[in-house]
Amino acid sequence: MNVTIIYNAIIEIQDSFRIGKVIMYSSTVTEYQEPPKKKVEEQASEPSPLPCKEEGKQPLIWFNIIGIGILHILALHAFFTKYHEAKFWTWIFSPAWGISAGIGITAGAHRLWAHRSYSAKLPLRIFLAILYCMAGQTHFYKWIRDHRTHHKFTETAADPHDANRGFFFSHVGWLMMKRHPAVKKYGSKVDMSDVTADPVIQFFDKYYELIMCTLAFVIPTLIPVYIWNESWYISIHAVIIRYVWLLNATFLVNSFAHMWGNRPYNRDVKPTENASVSFFTLGEGWHNYHHSFPWDYKAAELPSYGLNPSTAFIETMARLGLAYDLKTPSKELIAKVSVNNGDGTYSRWGIDHHQRKGTKGL
C-alpha cells in the first residue's frame, strides 16, 4: 500500500477526532442566506454556455452496445422465467444489497464527493466508498468528473448525457458511443483537486477493479449459495437483475428527471421535479431544485424522508457525529429563487409551497 496514502489516512483520523470534539454538541446543519463563495460561483455558472458551437464525431462502441444489451436480456429473461423460484431470503437480500449500494451513489459519490454538500469523517467516507463499489459502476474520479461536467455544462455539447439529444441518449445511449470532443475538452477543465487530494478516493480508485468486482458480483453471488442454499443459477441471475436495475435507476435521473415534471425553481432548464424518479433513486428525482441548489445536502426542498431516504441517512450520520457541516439554503432564499425563476408551480411533495402572488398550485 502506498506510504503517502497511509500517512494521509492517519492524519484524517486525527482530524476526525479533533473535529468531533469541537462540534459534538453543536448543530450539524448550517443554514445561511447565501452559500460559501466557491459554491456561489458554481451556482452562478450553472449551466455555462459554450463559447462556440462544438462539432465532433462519436463512433459507436460495439462492445458496450452488445454488453449492455446482453445484460438486459439476461436480467429480463431470468426475472420472468426463473426468479419466482428464488428463496425468500434471496428476495430480501438482493434488493437490500442494491439499496445499500444506491446510498453509496446518492449520499456518497453524489452529495458528499461531487457536490461537497456536507462533510464526513474518515469512517463514514470509507463506509460510503465501500457501498459505492457495491454498485459496480465506474471509478470515483470518472463518476465525479462526469457529474460536475454535467452540472456546469448542462444541456450543451459538453454535457456527457445531454438531454437535448433525446430520451435514449440521455438514459443509456451516451455509454454506447465515444465521448463528444466537447465533453473531453471542457470536462478536463473542471476542478478536481479536492478529489485527487482525498486519500480514501485515491485508495479505492487505485484498487477499484478488484474491490468493485468482489463487492458488486462475487460476494453477493456467494452469500445466497452458501448461507441459505440458493441455486447457482438464481444467485448469479439475482446479481445481474440487481445490477441492471441499479444502472437504470441511476439513468432515470439523466433521462426522466430531465423531461417530465414541473420546474418550480428554474423554468429555463430541463431538469424537473419527478416524484416517481425520487422513489426509485432514493430521493434524487427532485432535480429542478437540485440544479438550482446543487450544494444542498438534501438535494430537495422537502424534509420528508418518504421520498428522500438519502437525506434520512445523512442526517442519521450527523446525529451519530460522523457527518457535519450539512449545507442548506434558507427558506427565504428558496422562496426568492422560486418566485423569480420558477414556472409558477410549487413542489407537489414539499412542505413550504411558497404560495405567493404570481404563483399557482399544481
From TrEMBL:
The chain crosses the membrane at residues 60-81, 88-110, 122-141, 207-228, 234-257. Keywords: Fatty acid biosynthesis, Fatty acid metabolism, Iron, Lipid biosynthesis, Lipid metabolism, Membrane, Oxidoreductase, Transmembrane, Transmembrane helix. InterPro entries: Acyl-CoA_DS, FA_desaturase_dom. GO terms for molecular function: iron ion binding; stearoyl-CoA 9-desaturase activity. It is a multi-pass membrane protein. GO terms for biological process: unsaturated fatty acid biosynthetic process. One of its GO terms (cellular component) is endoplasmic reticulum membrane. It is found in: Membrane. It holds the Pfam family FA_desaturase. Residues 91-294 form the Fatty acid desaturase domain. Its main location: membrane. Its cofactor is Fe(2+). The keyword Transport does not apply. Belongs to the fatty acid desaturase type 1 family. The histidine box domains are involved in binding the catalytic metal ions. This is Acyl-CoA Delta(11) desaturase-like isoform X1. It comes from Ceratosolen solmsi marchali.
